[in-house]
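On clarity, I found the account of how folds are encoded harder to follow than it need be. Since the whole study asks how a given chain folds, the encoding of that fold should be made plain. For the editor and my fellow referees, an illustration may be useful. An entry of this sort, consisting of the sequence and the corresponding backbone structure tokens, reads as follows:

:::
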Amino acid sequence: MPVVGHIAREAPEGDLLETWTEKLKNTQFHLSDVTNGFSDLIAVKDTGEIMNVKKAGYLTSSVMKHFVVPKLERVIDEEKKVTHSSLMDDTEKVILEPAKIKVKLKADNVDICYPPIFQSGGEFDLRPSASSNEQNLYYDSTSVIICAIGSRYNSYCLNVARTFLIDANPIQSKAYEVLLKAHEAAIGALKPGNKTGDVYQAALSVVEKEAPELVANLMRSAGTGIGLEFRESGLNLNGKNDRILKSGMVFNVCLGFQNLQTESKNPKTEKICVLLADTVVGGQNAPEVVTSMSSKAVKDVAYSFNKDEEEEEQPKVKAKPVATNGLSSKAILRSVNHETSREELRRQHQAELARQKNEETARRLTGGSSGGADSRGAAKATGELVAYKNINDLPPPRELMIQVDQRSEAILLPIHGTMIPFHIATVKSVSSQQDTNRTCYIRIMFNVPGTPFTPHDTNTLKFQGSIYVNEVSFHSKDPRHITEVVQQIRTLRRQVVSRESERAERATLVTQEKLQVAGAKFKPIKLSDLWIRPVFGGRGRKLPGTLEAHTNGFRYGTSRPDERVDVMYGNIKHAFFQPAEKEMITFLHFHLRNHIMAGNKKTKAVQFYVEVMDVVQTIGGGKRSAYDPDEIEEEQRERDRKNKINMEFQTFVNKVNDLWAQPQFKGLDLEFDQPLRELGFHRVPHKSTAFIVPTSSCLVELVETPFVVITLCEIEIVNLERVGLGQKNFDMTIIFKDFKRDVMRIDSIPSTSLDGIKEWLDTTDLKYYESRLNLNWRQILKTITDDPEEFIENGGWEFLNLEGTDSESDHSQESDQGYEPSDVEPVSSDEEDDESESLVESDDDEGGEDSEEYSEEEGKTWEELEREASNADREKGAESDSDSDNDRKRRNMKAFGKGRPPEKRNLASNISKRPRFR
């Protein structure tokens, strides 16, 4: 009997197909369902189809990241009333017009799979057929918002869904964390050779292990195949499907919990749902999530909008609402209790960072080298020195006197009646001297092997057995000629040394790609009238230039053809934009991965800037009136000029950021970073005082030269040194993960910036320690690298944690041995009176009479006063004798300004006087 294949699951539509199906059923043919065969045939996508899916994924995740999330944040922050349906309409318009979010895809090729879905307020439906209702977005405490977007590019479908938590309670947080792990497990199981049902089983296993009580709420499918159809039913990711996965298949991995019961009595948050969906392309080795741009990490979807910070900290610090000295209890909690709990939280976080840092350092030290090869001290090789290849090339002989041949870069010296040539590179120094008889002497020193500070080049190695001339001296009766010869030799030598140095530096440069100049279709982004640092060489008048953003890099150039610098996008490590606020310049700064040549200088930092205010000198030095109309008008012009320049730079930066957001630059992770001035602090990084400012990824100082750019991810730990009572400033030492790299010292930071720096270091997850003295870090790092096992066994970086040692040994005899009050000379009564008076004045400026009476009174000694205070405390039962003794010792230590010396350990003992440079 003949066998005829047909698609049984699709109902025929149209007269032709309906007639054909009816006739086919009336025949004697054997009908066989070929749906699965066709499904297998089209399930594996070719390169072009996968590219369409990726473009749809880029569009959809861009809409979620750059439109939906900011829109929701703005609505919640401003407490607006917006309906789900209006959010749906706005999102649909953005999908259909990709240019609104600066996605360069043709709108004609874009469509939606389904209207965007926004759900909140307890009414949830996790099916793709769900719709956004007319209710307002609900974002009160413990609320949940679900957003799902489906789009098409060239008819190929893509789906992404995210859940946002507002002030989540423990049940909601746990449900989302378990769902996130299950979702990642399902994606990880999409490997060629696995069965389709294995994907759902991987997710189910995570839920059974992490939260068995949520198994009943888990969706019965982990998604479906996706392509030209939104749901390819033959590729359902459920536990019963045994189809084999192949590379090139595309799946919509969609997983969620339904009807979760929370502890809330609010009907809008009593029952919730959580949903996650991503589109995944199966690969040979690992699956690729094409919607990964839209983050689903807990820190990016969980929001906290509690307004009163003191209410958050109140359960940890119990205080009775008692008013004291006219201050309300609320003010006391804000100023005392909140700060105490904040410091405690920071200390706990630092303890956790210490544990993580020690584990990370141990893995790195035991895994191999702690950094790159040390390139310091490399010998500089020079080419073979040849002044004249043939005797006929020598200039025609003139008088037997010293000659300088500029063209051949040689000097000719008369020796025994013959002109002997010497290449200028062999000359070490030249000097002249005149005696009382007006006789001039000229002395020429040569580079000779074996003398100190002589470079070992290829020539000295080549002629090791030769005899060298160390120096020659001549005398002359013509001082004018000797002066001219010395000047010519020095000038020629300086030119040759500069050229050879530049050539050697260029030889060490990493070869950069060639700049692709923008064509007619893509006009370069320009910023005009800029100055550059480092400046170009030469003695001519300095000229401003133009910075242009081309296809793969920047080009800066002036009207002179030799003044040009190319900065490739791939060579940029960090890009900064700093508008003029309290500085005189607005600039763009590029910190590079590899050195480039700016003129004849080798550099890793290039800066383009404009001075926003002209330098004005008042003739006569007279002070003008504050109400001088000419001065007011001049200040207004300066403000307008500054605002205009800042706006031009901002426009250029925005356009370049849009260019870097294109897919071809995604791997470079480029974006202009802007320093945060409010977190900055004054310090001395080199020789002069400057203002260092944190950014999102660096610690920078970009106004004064030499520039400072410290990448935060390259920092191992930070040690705050010379921190103690009575110190007006302290130092910050930055230790890098590459232990062969010198530490960075930032000296003389005002102590008023200490708390702000600690808070910033803690929020950026950088572990910091404190010490009372400067440490010899070169010796410490050498000790670590020489014996990393001992460093790990001794607790890693905890040898710097002197605070914990001090606090634990406050009541021990060993700590008392570090300080003996009997050996210290007592403070004179005059000093005590002065100190007491200063304290009174700082607390209350109007207490002059009381302080005067106190200073004139003979009174009792400190010991008698403390003894009476301890007796009073003992009578009240507030403290014990031992406590009062220890308190007295600690107070005496503070009064004398002496701290307990650190415990002697193998690394902490490397203490030296504070040097200026490391």
